[in-house]
Amino acid sequence: MRVLLVEDDDLLGSAVCKGLQQAGYAVDWLRDGRQAMNALRDAEPDILVLDLGLPGQDGLSILRDLRHRQSDLPVMVLTARDTVDDRIGGLDAGADDYLVKPFDLGELTARLRAIARRRTGRASPVIEHNGIVFDPAVRSVSVDGETLQLPGRAMAILEALLERPGVPLSRERLEQILYGWGEGVESNAVEVHIHHLRKKLGKDAIKTIRGLGYMIPK
Ligand code: CA
Fold first, then answer.
1. What does the alpha-carbon distance between residue 141 and residue 153 come to, in Å, rounded to a whole number?
2. What pLDDT digit, counting tens, does each position of 36-95 carry?
3. What domains are defined for the chain?
4. Between β-strands 75-79 and 47-51, what pairing exists: parallel, antiparallel or unpaired?
5. 21 CA from centroid of ligand 1 (Å)
6. According to the model, what pLDDT value does residue 214 have?
7. Distance from Cα 54 to the centre of ligand 1, integer Å
């Protein structure tokens, strides 16, 4: 899952960035509101984590712009302004949730998981499909009761595929999920991870759909 973090505070931004990466997210981090606005018009992440007080353009107007364009991108607002009016303003402008600074990183990642869950319409936090059990909270995967050791990137690909069984995801889409881990994506990275996942999960666990990408059968 790919997160765009917009936060101008260096210390907080780098802590959130690290925390999210450890929780298995691919993170892009921008410090400027106007840059964020442009980035969002180009391509949307899976979740936006948005500070309200930003240079260039404030967070609330970024949020209003998104909703004005009918975007349903999930947005978690980070705010230093612990006043009722600001919270109401943020939620009214279309935020899915908000956290008041300072906050606990564990709480941020737990709330992001809840947002992602609501978005896919799942009530249970654990994804179970075709004998594969994936627990996003502790980043663990098991098959038929046996826990698998998987690198973070392979797990991120598996998570994306498990969220939409029967729906193929293109290599480009999967590369986007890998991108943001703090390094460039090598041209065959997706194939390498898929190969690795098939070795662990069984060769039929992930299907290649010609011209469309990869999919976990329904
Ligand atoms: Ca700020």
1. 13
2. 999 999 888 999 999 999 999 999 999 999 999 999 999 999 987 667 777 788 888 899
3. 2-120 (3.40.50.2300), 127-215 (1.10.10.10)
4. parallel
5. 21
6. 97
7. 5
* Helix, strand or coil, per DSSP, at residue 198: helix
pLDDT at residue 104 greater than cutoff 60: yes
**Taking ligand 1, which is a single-atom ion, which protein residues have CB atoms under 5 Å away?**
8, 51, 53
Distances (CA, A) of 103 to 12, 16, 89, 210: 10, 10, 20, 45
Mapped onto helix, strand or coil, the DSSP state of residue 47 is strand
Q: Which two tokens stand for residue 83?
A: 């006043």
Measured in Å, residue 80 CA sits from the centre of ligand 1 at 8
Tokens of 47: 């979740």
Q: What is the pLDDT of residue 182?
A: 54
Instruction: Compute the half-sphere exposure of residue 99: CA atoms within 13 Å on the CB side of its CA.
Output: 19
Terminal CA-CA length for the chain: 20
